[in-house]
Amino acid sequence: MEPVSRPEWPADDGAGEAELFFQRCSWCRTTTIRRLLCPACWSTDLVAERSEGVGVVAPRRYGPTTPETVWPVRMREGFVVRCRVDGPPHAVRPGVRVRLAATAATITVPGGRIVRRDPVVRLCEEAALDGWTRGVG
Ligand SMILES: [Zn+2]
Q1: Domain range for residue 44?
Q2: Does residue 98 belong to any structural domain of this protein?
Q3: Would residue 37 count as lying in a domain?
Q4: Domain ChsH2 rubredoxin-like zinc ribbon: where (predicted)?
Q5: What is the whole-number distance in angstroms between the Cα of residue 40 and the centre of ligand 1?
Q6: How confident is the model over 27-76, as pLDDT tens digits?
Q7: What residues contact residue 125 under an 8 Å CB cut-off, 6+ apart?
């Protein structure tokens, strides 16, 4: 019998496995995530869409209790989502491009408590850092 290895994440590194869904307002086209109301016009008419999974690390505004690896990421579609950034800490800073690597999940930890695991993104080192983020919003 061959030993069966179980990698923590799917071995295939493509964007095929990881998914991130956001919401787009049917009225004003504002994008958001995990909301019941549009933050711009308060409409409840939000439609779920799948993100391309590419974004840029945004300035961090979390308190000291947040893990060092957790950053807000502004996705190409315009919404900002809290993500765990998988990369060397010195390379992770606002303006760095990232790509979705693992889907957000809700997991039950021993003891029965339910916790939300933030989506995981990886640095796209080969990508240029300027371009489409400028002048948006
Ligand atoms: Zn709206």
Answers
A1: 21-123
A2: yes
A3: yes
A4: 13-46
A5: 5
A6: 999 999 999 999 999 999 999 999 999 999 999 988 888 888 999 999 99
A7: 91
